[in-house]
Amino acid sequence: MSAARIKTRVRSKVSGVAESHSLTLLTARDLVDVSDEPVERGGTNEGFAPTEFFLASLAACTNVISHKIAKKNSIEISALEVRVDAEFDRLGVTLQEEVALPFPQIFLEIRIRAELSKAQFDTLRSDLPRFCPVSKMIEQAGTRIVTDWIVERPAQPV
Question: Which of 93, 133, 142, 154 matches a 20 to 30 Å C-alpha distance to 78?
Fold first, then answer.
């Protein structure tokens, strides 16, 4: 019996319906979410702003790909936390002037609790930007991602 082939190219679809000037009802697969602006920008604060979804996708992709790399390299992750802090030039979204690079720099903090050898950590650190499609697109657009890894050892049983 031959192994099942994994599709290497798939189509991703998301749709959005404007519920108001700032609230968008989003659908992907069988999931529904909303995007909205905060009250101070005329929204009702019912969901992430579009730029927050963008940054959240980097955090989520970092989580998924880090775990895949860990599994492939026999690394047991007991905890992982990702924080994203971005410089955002809002001149474009306020329609004051076009901005070529709205996010010139993104700071990515990855806090991982795992028992890692130096070689395993080096693989994890070097493979993440190679395989995370979100970070690849961000960097290819010209944004610099500065990544800070904080490695903690799992607590040893007493």
Answer: 133
Among residues 144, 53, 143, 58, which one has the least CA distance to residue 100?
143
pLDDT score, position 157:
63
CA distances to 12, 31, 135, 142, 149 from 90, in Å: 28, 30, 21, 17, 28
**What's the predicted TM-score (pTM) here?**
0.90
| CATH 3.40.50.150 holds for 49-152 | no
Q: Per-domain residue ranges for the chain?
A: 11-47, 49-152
Instruction: Tell me if 116 sits within 8 A of 151, measured CB to CB.
Output: yes
Which two three-digit tokens encode residue 125? Answer: 């650190």
In this structure, how many other beta carbons lie within 10 angstroms of the beta carbon of residue 73? 15
Alpha helices (runs of H) in the chain, residue ranges in sequence order: 50-72, 118-131, 133-140
